[in-house]
Amino acid sequence: MIWQWRLIQRECTGCGICGDVCDYGAIALDRLTAYPEGVPGACVGCMVCVQECPFAAIEVLPPDPPTGSAGTPVRPATVASTKL
Ligand code: SF4
Ligand code: SF4
To answer: How many domains, in total, are found in the chain?
Structure first.
């Protein structure tokens, strides 16, 4: 499953703490912009960056639900009722 973190740029100071605490290498501070940048597919949704950011400048979004061939969400299989 691919989680995604999202920067709330107006709140970010570029302190780099989020990149320091991410054990999965999913965040690195961009030297040009001084804002965190993401590594696609690396985030596992552990939420450590959210907890450690002193400015509430980052949020983590869960993976999108799986979609069917027509792009519609897949419903969980229903359990057939059994007659007693
Ligand atoms: S810890 Fe928060 S304020 Fe610091 S660089 Fe990361 S998102 Fe920005
Ligand atoms: S949720 Fe965890 S894995 Fe994802 S960017 Fe934040 S610290 Fe890294």
So the answer is: 1
